[in-house]
Amino acid sequence: MNLIFLGPPGAGKGTLAGLVGREYGIPQISTGDLFRESVRGGTELGRKVKQIMDRGDLVPDDLTVALVKERLALPDAHQGFILDGFPRTIPQADALGKIARIDAVANFQVDDETVIRRLSGRRICRKCGAIYHVENIPPQVEGVCDRCGGELYTRSDDQIDAIRKRLQVYKQQTEPLIRYYRKKGLLRDIDASADPEHTLQQIRAALRPSGEQAG
Ligand code: AP5
Q: Fewer CB within 10 A of the end CB, N or C, for the chain?
């Protein structure tokens, strides 16, 4: 199954892509994670994108599409994938249409206030990338990952100014993709405001072939 998780920052795309990816046995491909890896690694790409990401703007389409094309060519993506945070513009979606077939697009719906609350309290494991929230999904020991014992950190773009900018960029540049994929009959609306288990149930139902009953 080739899936896209579309939605505003903080909607829970990464959290749910981890859960759905494990359940369906397909990789989660997050362009945000790939860019952050390049920044950490000090690569040429990392140097180009760091400031753009910190202020909450989008990385140029040509760089982003090239990165995704390279990632989708790896063998683990041949059995299916979840694109988390890509595409984010119409030109990216057009380019993706030439690279891969898409089966469904989960459209995460959540209001701005929830986004701000979620991103202000987000913590991420430096070692394994597990995602926590200080109130909603807290680790057992403050600042320490339950899964691997790694240190938890706050992303540099999870500051209020960058969060507001990312929301604005989402509305201007990414929201038009809702109509784009609805017209193609691929869009599945998901209420992402409840807890992750409830969101997961909705995604399972949305991906079930029509006519198949819940088990
Ligand atoms: P990216 O890393 O993709 O960030 P984003 O889209 O802003 O999304 P987030 O990772 O912030 O949120 P999420 O929806 O994954 O939420 P999460 O699951 O973590 O992109 C970062 C930057 O990279 C961009 O700004 C841009 O510069 C660049 N970039 C990336 N892709 C690009 C592209 N295609 N083109 C151009 N530039 C690109 O959850 C958030 C918090 O809420 C967590 O604390 C979590 O624990 C909590 N939470 C999650 N779900 C729930 C729930 N159901 N109930 C309660 N709490 C929840």
A: C
